[in-house]
Every structure is written in structure tokens, then in C-alpha cells.
């Protein structure tokens, strides 16, 4: 993994380009998703959804595999790494 590119789903604009070294928790989650996609024979580059719900909780959803994670379950600091992407 060289990097993680985050794009706005509506505009296609790049929100962030995170190096593997600098992406920390986000890169770790990305590797886990890529593994799930490999096991399910799904494309590596399919989009994922980062959703902030009305109660301010966030979920990361992979429509390609059905994988989903409630980000607060990984701790507040790790959830904050994803929250920064929505600002």
C-alpha cells in the first residue's frame, strides 16, 4: 500500500491523500478491507462509505463486501482520525 486516497462521493474531489506511513489507523482499516475484498473476490478500488449519523456516531461501510464498522468501537482517537476527513 503506497497511500489511501479519500474522495468526496458527490463531487469526486480529493479530500485527502494519506501516505501509508502517515495514515495510521486509517491505513490499518484500509488493509483489513482490502483483505476482505480479496477473500470475496471483489475489486480493490471499489468505493467505501464513511457515514456520520444524526447522533454523531460514524460508520465505515464497504458496499462491495457488506463489511461495516462502527468507528467508536476502535476508540475515540481512532474515530477522530476519520472525523477529520468529514470536515
Using brief descriptors, characterize the structure shown.
87 residues; alpha+beta; 3-stranded antiparallel beta sheet; two-stranded antiparallel sheet; 26% helix; globular
Provide structural commentary.
The structure is a single chain. The chain is α+β, with helices and mostly antiparallel strands. The protein has helices at residues 25-39, 76-83; strands at residues 3-7, 14-19, 49-52, 58-62, 67-70. A three-stranded antiparallel sheet has the order 3-4-5, with helices on one face. Strands 1-2 form a two-stranded antiparallel sheet. It starts with a strand and ends with a helix. The model has no long low-confidence stretch (mean pLDDT 88).
Shape: globular
Terminal-residue CA separation: 25 Å
Largest sheet: 3 strands, antiparallel
Global structural class: alpha+beta
Radius of gyration: 12 Å
How confident is the prediction overall: mean pLDDT?
88
The percent range for helix content is 25-40%
Strand content: 25-35%
| DSSP summary: helix tally | 2
Amino acid at each position: 500500500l503506497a497511500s489511501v486516497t479519500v474522495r468526496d462521493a458527490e463531487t469526486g474531489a480529493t479530500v485527502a491523500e494519506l501516505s501509508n506511513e502517515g495514515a495510521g489507523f486509517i491505513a490499518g482499516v484500509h488493509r483489513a478491507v482490502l483483505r476482505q475484498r480479496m477473500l470475496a473476490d471483489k475489486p480493490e478500488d471499489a468505493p467505501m462509505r464513511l457515514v456520520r449519523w444524526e447522533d454523531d456516531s460514524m460508520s465505515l461501510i464497504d458496499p462491495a463486501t457488506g463489511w461495516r464498522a462502527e468507528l467508536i468501537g476502535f476508540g475515540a482517537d481512532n474515530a477522530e482520525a476519520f472525523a477529520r476527513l468529514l470536515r
